Amino acid sequence: MTKLNYHIILADDDEDDRTFFKEALLETESSVTVNTASDGIELMNLLSHTLPDAIFLDLNMPFKNGQECLSEIKNNRRYKNIPVVIYSTSSNVDQINSTFKAGANLYISKPDSYLKLKIILKKVFTLKCEEYKPQPDKEKFVLKY
């Protein structure tokens, strides 16, 4: 994801997770701006006004969950080429497989510490576009810290 000015959207219903994500990102990647959405409906409304370079998407959100948003994004001509990074507490193999089949570009299980979050974000933003876009091979889909 090497780029000078990068714009992402983080969709996550947990306010603490959004705050930690933005703080960790600021410490690792100062050239990234973040818009946030607290649920799937807010995400889809935000996308209608701005097209980000990538979307970090939690799966467990109210009103419209991450799986529904992923499907809507990947089935929309305007949004389908936006890389989607699943950012979830789940490490369930069925969910991982389901999001891969739906077209997500990377899968990250939310780390259990702030330091691990910084490490994983640094990894994401140092990847070369070809490594995750349009979609990586299955063995490179889940990003580990």
- Biggest β-sheet: count, sense, barrel? 5 strands, parallel
So, CATH architecture? 3-Layer(aba) Sandwich
Average pLDDT, rounded to a whole number, is: 86
> Outline, from the CA principal axes?
globular
Tell me what you see in this structure:
The protein is α/β, with parallel strands linked by helices and 145 residues long. The protein has one domain: Rossmann fold (3-Layer(aba) Sandwich), CATH 3.40.50.2300. It is 37% helix and 17% strand. It has five helices and five strands, in the order βαβαβαβαβα. It has a five-stranded parallel beta sheet with strand order 2-1-3-4-5, sandwiched between helices. The longest helix is centred in the first third of the chain and has 14 residues, at 15-28.
Question: How would you briefly describe this protein structure?
Answer:
37% of the residues lie in helices and 17% in strands.
Annotate the secondary structure layout.
Elements: E1 6-11, H1 15-28, E2 32-37, H2 40-47, E3 54-57, H3 66-74, E4 84-88, H4 93-101, E5 106-109, H5 114-126
Parallel strand pairs: 1-2, 1-3, 3-4, 4-5
Which properties best describe this structure?
five-stranded parallel beta sheet, alpha/beta, 145 residues, Rossmann fold
